[in-house]
From TrEMBL:
<feature type="compositionally biased region" description="Pro residues">
    <location>
        <begin position="414"/>
        <end position="427"/>
    </location>
</feature>
<dbReference type="Pfam" id="PF02181">
    <property type="entry name" value="FH2"/>
</dbReference>
<protein>
    <recommendedName>
        <fullName>FH2 domain-containing protein</fullName>
    </recommendedName>
</protein>
<dbReference type="InterPro" id="IPR015425">
    <property type="entry name" value="FH2_Formin"/>
</dbReference>
<feature type="compositionally biased region" description="Pro residues">
    <location>
        <begin position="1"/>
        <end position="23"/>
    </location>
</feature>
<feature type="domain" description="FH2">
    <location>
        <begin position="21"/>
        <end position="398"/>
    </location>
</feature>
<feature type="region of interest" description="Disordered">
    <location>
        <begin position="1"/>
        <end position="30"/>
    </location>
</feature>
<dbReference type="InterPro" id="IPR042201">
    <property type="entry name" value="FH2_Formin_sf"/>
</dbReference>
<feature type="region of interest" description="Disordered">
    <location>
        <begin position="384"/>
        <end position="488"/>
    </location>
</feature>
Length: 511
C-alpha cells in the first residue's frame, strides 16, 4: 500500500505589475529623482508583507507632479547638486554649520587665516573646537573625489572642501591652537609655581606658627609625662589635626581650646598667625605633579612646533617660537626654585621629601589654622558668657539682700521709728497708757460733812484710730468728721482740777 501524498504548498503570488513610466520622459522633461534604497525582490516575493499585491490606487495627478518636481531646462544630469550632507556625516555637518555661524566670518576668510597662521580673531577655545570637527579619512576621500562645482555646496561641505586643499592643514591648525593657548597656560603654570614657592617661604618664616608648635609640644609632653610618648622632641605635623580629640572636663572644650587660651595669655599676637600664611590655603589645592606634567607637555608641543617651523608653515611661527622658548626657560627656572624651597620647608618641619609633600604639609597646616581660629572664637564666647553669669549673680545677690532687710523690718515687735504727730491728733491708746501720769491721792473732805458733788460730765470717747493714712489726713475746722481727741493729760488729773474748781466756787479754802 503506497504512502499518502503530501499536500503541495500554494504557488507564490505573481509579482506586482510595473508602474507605467510618466509620459514626461517621452517629451524630454526630467524630474528630480528620489534617492532611496530599494529592497531586493527576493525579500518581497513569497511572503506576506505590506508590499503584497493589492487593488491599484487611484491615478496620480501627473500634471501637478511634473509642475512641482521637474528640473530646470538646460540642466545636465552631471551638474545636479548632491544631497545636502553627501560629503560629510549628518551630525558633523550640522555641528560644523552651527560652529561657522558662531564665527560670523566668510568661509574663504577662515580658510585663508588658517593657511597664514592667524588665530587671534578666533581664540584658543574656538580653534580647539574646530580641531575636533575635522573630517575623518573616509570623509576626506569623498571631499577630494568631488568633481562638481564647489559653490553649489552648503557652507559646512564648502569649508571642509577648501580646508582639505590647504597643505598640512591639520598641523597648521595645531600650531594655531598652540600659539593661542601657550602663553595663557604658561602664565597659569607660573602662577601656581609662585603660589607654592610663597607658601613654602611663609612656612619657613612664620615665627608665630613656630611658637604655637612649641607650645603644643610642651603641653603634649606634660600630658604624656611618665608614658612612652612623654619627653618628645617633636611630632609629625599631621598630629595637629588630633588635638580636638583630647577632650577637657569642661563641656565643649578640648586641648585645642586650651592651647588657644595659653597663646592668648602668653602673647596676643600669636592668635593671628593664620593671617601670616595667606598662600598656604591656595597651595593646599595645587598638585605639584600636575604642574610639572603640564609644563612637560607644553615643552613637547613647542618642540613639535619647532620641527614644523623648518617646513615654513606660516610667517608668524618663528617669532612665536623665539618668545615661547624664552618664557619656557623662565618657567623652568621658577620650577627649580620651587624644588629647592619645598625641600627646605619639608626638611624644616622634619617631613619626608616625597612627591606632593609640600601640598600635604600646606593642607594640614591650613586645616589646623582654621580650627585654631574657631577655638579662639569659642573661647571668647565662653568668656563673655561667664562674665554675663557673674553680673547676673551679683544682681541676684543684691536683690536678695534688699529683700532680707525688708523682711526684718516687717517682723512684729521690731522697733521702728514713729513719726511726730501734729497737736490736733491723738496718740494711739497704747501710747496714751505708756505716757499717762500716775494717779494722785484723793483730797480730804471739807468740814461740815461731805457736800454733794455735781454730776461729772461723761468722759469723752477716745478718738478712733484711723491707721497710718488717717494720721496724715488733716481736716478743716468746719469739715465734718469725728470729734477731736481729748488732751493728753490723765483722767486723775482732770478729776482733781474739776474738784478744785468746784471748791473755789463754793468759797471753801483750798487744801
Amino acid at each position: 500500500m503506497g504512502s499518502p501524498r503530501r499536500p503541495q504548498p500554494p504557488p507564490p503570488p505573481p509579482p506586482p505589475p510595473a508602474l507605467p513610466s510618466p509620459p514626461a520622459a517621452s517629451r524630454g522633461e526630467r524630474l528630480r529623482a528620489l534617492h532611496w534604497e530599494p529592497l531586493p525582490a527576493a525579500r518581497v516575493r513569497g511572503r506576506r508583507s505590506v508590499w503584497a499585491p493589492r487593488p491599484p490606487p487611484p491615478p496620480l495627478d501627473l500634471p501637478r507632479l511634473r509642475l512641482l518636481f521637474r528640473e530646470p531646462r538646460g540642466a545636465a544630469p552631471g551638474q545636479r547638486p548632491p544631497p545636502a550632507a553627501a560629503l560629510l556625516e549628518p551630525k558633523r555637518s550640522l555641528a560644523l554649520g552651527v560652529f561657522l555661524k558662531q564665527l560670523k566670518r566668510p568661509v574663504r576668510q577662515i580658510v585663508r587665516d588658517i593657511q597664514e597662521g592667524i588665530g587671534a580673531p578666533y581664540g584658543a577655545e574656538k580653534l580647539l573646537e574646530l580641531s575636533r570637527l575635522l573630517p575623518g579619512a573616509a570623509e576626506v576621500a569623498r571631499l577630494r573625489a568631488f568633481s562638481g562645482s564647489p559653490w553649489q555646496l552648503p557652507d559646512p561641505e564648502l569649508f571642509m572642501l577648501l580646508l582639505t586643499e590647504v597643505p598640512s592643514y591639520t598641523q597648521r591648525l595645531e600650531l594655531l591652537v598652540l600659539q593661542e593657548e601657550f602663553f595663557p597656560r604658561l602664565s597659569a603654570l607660573r602662577s601656581s609655581i609662585q603660589t607654592l614657592t610663597d607658601a613654602a617661604t611663609e612656612l619657613l618664616e612664620c615665627e608665630e606658627l613656630h611658637t604655637i608648635l612649641h607650645l603644643i609640644l610642651s603641653t603634649g609632653n606634660h600630658l604624656n609625662s611618665g608614658g612612652y610618648a612623654g619627653s618628645a622632641v617633636g611630632f609629625r605635623i599631621a598630629s595637629l589635626l588630633k588635638l580636638p580629640d583630647t577632650k577637657a572636663n569642661e563641656p565643649g572644650m578640648d586641648l585645642l581650646h586650651f592651647v588657644a587660651m595659653e597663646a592668648a595669655r602668653m602673647q596676643r599676637d600669636l592668635l593671628d598667625f593664620p593671617s601670616k600664611l595667606p598662600h598656604v590655603g591656595p597651595a593646599s589645592r595645587i598638585e605639584q605633579a600636575e604642574v610639572e606634567g603640564e609644563l612637560r607637555r607644553l615643552a613637547g608641543r613647542l618642540a613639535g612646533a619647532r620641527s614644523l617651523g623648518a617646513a615654513g608653515l606660516g610667517p608668524r611661527l618663528p617669532p612665536f617660537l623665539r618668545a615661547a622658548e624664552e618664557e619656557l626657560r623662565g618657567t623652568r627656572a621658577a620650577m627649580e626654585r620651587l624644588h629647592r624651597t619645598a625641600a627646605a620647608a619639608l626638611d624644616f618641619y622634619c617631613e619626608e621629601a616625597a612627591p606632593g609633600g609640600l601640598q600635604e604639609l600646606c593642607a594640614v597646616l591650613h586645616g589646623f589654622a582654621g580650627r585654631f581660629l574657631g577655638a579662639v572664637q569659642e573661647n571668647r564666647a565662653r568668656e563673655q558668657a561667664r562674665r554675663r553669669r557673674q553680673q547676673l549673680e551679683l544682681q541676684r545677690q543684691k536683690r536678695r539682700s534688699i529683700a532680707s532687710c525688708s523682711a526684718r523690718d516687717a517682723e512684729p515687735g521690731a522697733p521702728r521709728p514713729l513719726p511726730a504727730l501734729p497737736p490736733p491728733f491723738a496718740a494711739p491708746p497704747a501710747l496714751q497708757r505708756r505716757h499717762t501720769a500716775p494717779e494722785l491721792p484723793a483730797l480730804p473732805e471739807p468740814r461740815g460733812g461731805p457736800e454733794p458733788r455735781p454730776p461729772e460730765p461723761p468722759a469723752p470717747a477716745p478718738a478712733p484710730f484711723f491707721g497710718l493714712a488717717g494720721l496724715f489726713q488733716r481736716k478743716g475746722p468746719g469739715a465734718p468728721g469725728p470729734a477731736r481727741a481729748a488732751p493728753s493729760e490723765g483722767s486723775a488729773l482732770l478729776g482733781f482740777l474739776r474738784r478744785l474748781a468746784a471748791g473755789r466756787a463754793r468759797g471753801a479754802p483750798p487744801s
